Amino acid sequence: MTAVGTPAATPPPRRRQAGPLIPEGPVRASAHICQAAGCQSMGSDRLLEVLSDEVLGAGLRDVAVGRVGCLGLCSAGPLVAVPEQGRVFERVRPDDGASRQDLLSSLSGEAKGGRPLAGDSFFSPQVKVVLERSGTVDPERVDDYVASGGYTALAKAVSEMAPEEVVAEVVKSGLRGRGGAGYPTGLKWRTVAIQDSHAGKYVVCNADEGDPGAFMDRSVLESCPHQVLEGMAIAGYAVGASQGYVYVRAEYPLAVKRLSHAIREAGREGFLGREVAGTRFGFEVEVRIGAGAFVCGEETALIASVQGGRGTPRPRPPYPAASGLWGCPTLINNVETFANIPAVVAKGGEWLASMGTERSKGTKVFALAGAVANTGLIEVPMGVTLREIVFGIGGGLAPGRRFKAVQTGGPAGGCIPEDLLDMPVDYESLTQAGSMMGSGGMIVMDDTSCMVDVAKFFMDFCREESCGKCAPCRVGTQEMWRFLDRMTRGAGTRRDLEQLESLADMVRSTSLCGLGQGAPNSVFSTLRYFRDEYLAHIDDRVCPAGVCAMNAGGRSEAVPAGVGVAGVGSPK
Amino acid sequence: MSEIIIEPVTRIEGHAKIAVSVGPDGAVTDARFSVTQVRGFERITVGRPMHEMPSFMARICGICPTSHLLASAKACDEILGVTVPRAARHLRRVMNLAQIVQSHALNFFHLSSPDLLLGFDSDPATRNIAGVAARAPELARDGIALRKFGQQIIETLGGKRVHPAWVVPGGVSTPLSTEQRDNILGAIPDAHARAVRTLEWYKENLASWAEEAAHFGSFPSLYMGLVHHRTGNAAYSDGHLRMVDAEGHRLLDDVDPRPYWDYLGEAVEPYSYLKSPFYKPLGYPAGLYRVGPLARLNVVDKLGSPVADAELAEFRLRLGRFPHGSFHYHWARLIEILHCIDTIGQILSGPDILDQDVRAHAAVNNLEGVGVSEAPRGTLFHHYRVDKDGIIQWVNLVIATGHNNLAMNRSVLQVAQRYIKGDEVREGALNRVEAVIRAYDPCLSCSTHALGQMPLVLEIFAPDGELVRRVTRSPA
Amino acid sequence: MSKARLATMWLDGCSGCHMSFLDMDELLLEVLGKADIVYGAFVDAKEFPEGVDVTLVEGAVGSSEDLRKLKMARERSRVLVAFGDCAVTGNVPSLRNPIGPKAVLESVYLEKPAVNPQIPSQLVPELLEEDLPIHAWVPVDLYLTGCPPSAARIYDCVKRLLDGEPPEAVSEAVAFKFG
Amino acid sequence: MSEVRTLQIDGKDVAARSDQTILSAAQDNEIGIPTLCHLEGLSDVGACRLCVVEVEGTPKLLPSCTTRVEEGMKITTTSERLVAYRRKMIEMFFVERNHICAVCVANNHCELQDLATRLGVDHFDLPLMHPKLPVDATHERFAIDHNRCILCTRCVRVCDEVEQAHTWDVAGRGAESLIVSDLGTPWGSSTTCTSCGKCVQVCPTGALFEKGRSVAEPKARRPYLPYLVRVAEREQ
Amino acid sequence: MAIATVQAAAGRSRPSAPSDDKRWRQVDVRMRRLGYRPDGLIEALHTAQEAFGYLDDEALTYVGESMGVAPSKAYGVATFYSHFMLKPQGEHTCVVCAGTACYINGAAGLLGAIEGKLGVEPGETTPDNKISVLKARCFGCCSMAPVVMVDGEVHGTITPPELVTLLEDL
Q1: pLDDT, tens digit, for every residue of B394-433?
Q2: To 10 degrees, the CA torsion angle through A253, A259, A262, A267?
Q3: C28 vs B445: CB contact, 8 Å cut-off?
Q4: Which candidate in A265, A476, B271, E157 could, as Cys together with C123 as Cys, close a disulfide (CB 3.0–4.6 Å)?
């Protein structure tokens, strides 16, 4: 067992595992190959073998070939970092020897090719808290995590701090829930902590990252699962829970595998189990695998699902903090929130609170995708502007394309237009702009995207993911989709638009849970900024972006209005 | 060469059009009666529980929903394999007779009397019930009162005038109270008097319609109707089938009406949503037959109520034993009104009419059932197949109006040939083409159990089939 | 004072609402005293006239013919009333929608024993893909529910409209219920 | 144990027990809030959303059937906005399936139909969906017609909570949700159904009905449910 | 641990496996580790689906009964989650990502190409049982949109003709 408190005192043992190549002696250079799902899908797992062979073949005895988590620039995978050179090599394909020439020269000592990390427009503006170890430690080796300072915060908390002190630190950090709604994390912890429960309490990590276009949580779990486990264990200690669950989507097999492996490792090393870090505090973690239902991201639905049932939400109050799993007080935070915790405890709440804006502290991880040059996983301090993200880190749009909107917040989020690009990214500003922080999906759209079609896309998502329990969501999402569909076919009317808006208002106000309450947002936000596109579809039967087929155009007579209330006595 | 379209056919119960082809010499060469609506009851009821069928089927037609209720309930009775309690059988009969009274009154007074009273050539703007009320208020009031008499009985029994849900598989849902019976009985003398008065008026004026009577679908044909198996009297709810030819030979007599497919075939024509039934042994289209008031009077020995039978005797005396002119549907209709009023009185005076036992319950005992009854405009067949759970699997309906389809087509041709010459078409001529349809009182809601509506269109075609002209009468 | 102009129209329905209209019995004569019926199943006008004050439309819209007539009625009427459940909700005729017109026609005309089995295609109007309530196609001023609406409610409604009450006031004053 | 709370409903001062819901407190004071999924004796799920009310100081509308009273609450049960929303909800129930009142066994005895009348829903602006849905009449005594089901889950709850058979549950999700018996298998072949008929009793529409019932025939509404709930509670 | 559920699990007789198919052992092991508690239902169903490829009535009944869950609840759960298959899947699977990035980069075109080529929509299997087509919410490979996964292998920035070729080669 590793001695707690002096984790970095002894260097991690070097041994040859199945994949990584670890030299016997001192390391002069190392190739850190990204092994997150994105790069793996481009063959980075095979690259690990191929490159190891090549390094051995070239007689580079002091070069390590290692497995790391996500390096961020997913569009250019497989990615290989050479930290000693401060460089990242892009598109290093296992079946294309030429793509590895620069990398091999770099490993041999010649600084050649690759992308320098320092001063890079993609890498250098980023500030990493959650992704601190992503791309530097081997996600499957607890030793790597410990060597990088991992589990010191847990050890500190359980041995040096009272639970209330931990909570206080979290409160002080100003951390807010990274799952979407932005509820103050410290407040939530305190609510659970003060509950009296004979039957126990629970800590649940929500890793049911369902937003299309969002993969932050997956990357965190794939890149550094121990950081999340550490955060959970600290939470368990702080609120008085001894059992934790991680609810992960079944679509993330690699995350599940690494997480399960990490739980075993942490148990073996004494970071989880009956006596955490040698204290009387016990904390176990189980993985629960979701089965494909977006609504399970909603906390009461998630609880129902963890309990083995249909993932349908229930009205709140009571909130899970008072009555959650099996009726017991339950703390539910998302992956990114937990991943912030070790740093908050280790460096103090004030340290986190020093970053970000007045009311949004710390950093936020985003999955940047869509019509920008650099897409991938980024972490930025709260308060940077959208323009910095899109045109700085993202590298701007393809030549000849015009920026139209950036979509944030997933299906319940919204589309933000060009004239708001200088808006700071924080919870309040995004909400004010008619969108939301959400879990961190950020999709850039150019003039080839039709905003009516985009609204229809999100509505289609919502109607398919509606659990069906309450009528406004079950029926409302269907009907809103039908109105939007009609518009994209060139059959919409002004009356349809009126109906759509009033329906959207009703669904938002009366739905049982966040899914239904948020579903109309795609309509609201696109109407707010792109009403002219709707009107072009309706009045002129034209799709300005050229996306919609508008095939009902010209024979609109054959399409029923579906609705219609006359002006009194008006003959039309 | 021209085409004439009468659209819509007005003062009829439904949607149809008539297409008349006129040859180069100006003579009418063809005429087709087209029903233009279809709702698909034979398909949309598949998958429904059989106990909903009577009420469902009532929605085929708002004019004679009760006829459908009855035929449907009878088909369901057979599927359940139950004997309907005696009182329920009588009560169902009362409702059916009341139905015939109100429907006949509707046709005669509201729809046909404008032609009869005001003349076939009168101003179309006033050729309607309002015009009748202005010219002969008494006649209009009698019409309204007789229709109300029938509708009120239906309301008394079923709680609702149109689409009562009271007739159910196995019987009826509620028994009759003494008070209800007495109310109905109390209304009979007045209704009887109005029916007699109208008959007198009709008979007095018969001579003035001699021209139309001679040419409105006047041709020998077969006739079909239900008769009581022992007495040979009219039997509207539970009779056996009788088919006679133009000379009165009984082609079918005392036969169970349920296996209708043994006697009747159906044909589809491309120009109408209404199918054409025919008498199978004679083939299609030779097996043309007529149903409804005139046909019933021709097939029965007697009606079964004394005053009406006296009227029947006079009818036969003046027109012959087997009158073939469809114009005489009107007279037959009035006689039936009288007969139905009196028969309602007879039945309600029966001893066991107030019995509380009015419904038999059972599970599905047969997978197939046919229900037959006389609707105001003819014999009605409902034929269902169900699964063991009572879910409808297959439905075929042979509807009263349908039986007359071939006859109506032939009548339209006859009238068109007589009154339409060339493409100079007088309004009154077109009205006569419609009027012959009115005589049959086709219920096109019923006939469109399958689909449709009835604008009357007169289309004139060239010999090569090209549509030359389409005439729609302009509004008044 | 000139009489008001009242019209009725019968689309895809059973005529039960029209029958219920006649069930006003003697009150019918009162209505006829207030208004001329200028179009409908009871009168001879072949074409829907201009300048109609109130039109009662019974039935859903099932065929191209229904639609043509409905649009004409809307254009030429000051107040258009959806008359009965078929016009208001689609009711029984709309039960063909989950099945589709093609399957319905095939079932009725091809799958039953018949001479010349065929789907009628001459003179008859084409069926629309869906049988829908009338407000799916044109604006409606007043909804008079019921299968059929009772004569009393029809009288109440028609009388008020003929007396010049605005449709929304009539709508609030007249009781209603589906079925 | 419960304590007394004082609050205001529609401007009226009322007292309620702390364990009471807003709905129950309103009912005690003869303030009728429309509901479809709520039924005395069964757990509340807050699914139909008809009973949502405005509570001063709370931006969101709250379902009165699941929200407990709190001291000093100021509740509005009827406002222009609430009525408009409720009408739209009623419309939603009608348009999502094939509700044809005229030919329904529950005609004149249907909670949905009654609420439409009560709330003034005289037509549906929302487009009708016309799904193709089955009728299961395989059970000896009862049948279920999904065309008329509003997914209130009263049947599911009464079967689970009172009869404790759990024959019914909801399958699928969203618009595809369907009440099912056992493995989505015919009701008649259910191995768990006790044929007690409670589900039929509690159905607010004509979705669950006794076989042999014709259109518009009243069903006997026996007040036996509360009794059974008490029995079930005693046995535990 | 949850008291109520533990009680429910106690004193219940458990059914024996439907057949001596060895794959039931896998399921049994998993269920035992879950303590036969109703809250383990989803995990047990995952294992059964891994073992048999899909969940038939037999599997649902057995798992449900073993875990102390009524058949309708087991069915309700299995049909709620899109991951569970109640029908056998084809020899190959082709999953099209329908995430936002893929959508705006032409995922609809891919689905259209599949329908054109195979005549099936997402959720369906070709009649010859060769290919099952599915739609995924997001693989998290947004940077390579549009993305499909064929037999577990991700193909990024794919065009409809390329996808058709890929499917033809299966």
Answers
A1: 999 998 888 999 999 999 899 888 888 766 667 788 788 8
A2: -120
A3: no
A4: B271
